[in-house]
Amino acid sequence: MYVVRSAWMEESLMEMGLRYVLSGVLNRYLSESRSRLVDSDIRGGFSDAVRACLPPDEEYLVKGSAGAGGRAQVPWFCVFDPRVTKKASEGFYLVYLFKTDMTGVYLSLNQAWTPFSRQGSAAMGRENIRRVSERIWDSLRRRRDVPAGLRTSIDLACSGHNDNLARGYEQGHICGLYYAAESLPDETRLVEDLKGMLRVYASLVGMFTGTGGTDPLSGYQAIIPEVCGTDMSLSRILRESSVQPSAGAFKEVVFPGSGRRDPTRRTRGSVPFKPDYELRWQRNTLLGARGEKAAVELLKQWYPSCKVERVSETDDSLGYDIRVTGLDSGGELHVEVKSTTAKSEHTPFFISANELERARTDGEEFLLLRLFNLNDEHPGYYRITGTAVTQLVLTPNSYLAEIE
């Protein structure tokens, strides 16, 4: 197989540099709309040249694109931290975004538009990604390693009806810099700017990693529903979501029984938001893991001479999360943990048919441990045995549909 290389590709990466790459795209992208030779350069040699400008001891990935299939209105070079993402369709990253009219290019700390494009209409997705951008910038600007003079809005000169992706880039922009085609800075300035934005990127990765070493992509994805659905600051959301209460912080309350919630009570207001169910699942998974870890510590306090195993890590089909063995009775205790961040013990929770069957079968050897207010310094809990599960008011939530 032969690879067609343009004259530009023959230049060494060291001779190219950032200024050479940026001016090459700005000067050639529109004029080479038919030959599309510059498109090959963007995917190949130009991307390599951008990577050559990054710190050699950092494991960043660089990818350039002029569109998959059809030609992109906005070509780009992305710089990925592989701990966060390796593709432009998820997470957050640094990216050089070229205006559609090639009058300039932005160096942008930006977010993937794809997850937001699934949240109902394009307008709703743009509103939600804008809210996340603003909340992230509000937290970043308080950090000392964010340089002054960063732009918090960009204009890619979008036009036409098929520009949702470009407009998504505009709303996903968190902060960055702009270079006009007619006055590109010299190589030294461009490299220094890139290093400065890499520090901002690293700061954001650290923000979502937190002190607990959370996967930064999961941390970012978990805050999106909160940011889109509430007016809480990002710092508060991150602070609350990182709380891992000790066993001694929990307070027990009496099982509230099957009392129905006051129908006149109103929930807090929220902005329009169509859930991204994949992101919701990820967030609930993180919350569930925190609850199970806390439950393990509680059970170790209650049964100090027993073995406490978190079996859900290897098998989530058992109908319970934790197994306690070594009881005086000689049997086992099967513990299902239900965790929410809601402050009230009356808050409903989901329970599967498999868990209900396990509760009824095990009876007194089954414990439903209900944890609530999990983001607070003093969360609460109550306990329900398998025989007491009958006191719960169960509402059918889904149905199996079959064709006769």
Structural key phrases:
alpha+beta; Trna Endonuclease, Chain: A, domain 1; 11 helices; 404 residues; elongated; Metal Transport, Frataxin, Chain A; five-stranded antiparallel beta sheet; 15% strand; disordered N terminus
Number of contiguous helices: 11
Strands, count: 11
Oligomer: single chain
- Which series of helices and strands comes N to C? HHHEEEEHHHEHHHEHEEEHEE
CATH level-two architecture of the largest domain? 2-Layer Sandwich
Number of domains: 2
Tell me what portion of residues adopts beta-strand conformation.
15-25%
How large, in whole angstroms, is the Cα Rg? 26 Å
Strand order of the largest sheet: 6-11-10-9-8-7
Largest sheet: 6 strands, mixed
Question: Outline of this structure?
Answer:
This protein is α+β, with helices and mostly antiparallel strands and 404 residues long.
Characterization of the model:
With 404 residues, the protein is of the alpha+beta class. It folds into two domains: 7-209, 2-Layer Sandwich (Metal Transport, Frataxin, Chain A); 246-271 and 283-391, Trna Endonuclease, Chain: A, domain 1, CATH 3.40.1350. It is built from eleven helices and eleven strands. It has helices at 13-28, 37-43, 45-52, 114-117, 122-140, 164-172, 187-209, 216-229, 234-241, 277-302, 353-362; strands spanning 61-65, 76-80, 92-98, 104-111, 175-180, 251-252, 307-310, 322-325, 333-339, 366-372, 380-385. α7 crosses α8 (216-229). The longest helix is centred in the last third of the chain and has 26 residues, at 277-302. The protein is elongated, with a radius of gyration of 26 Å.
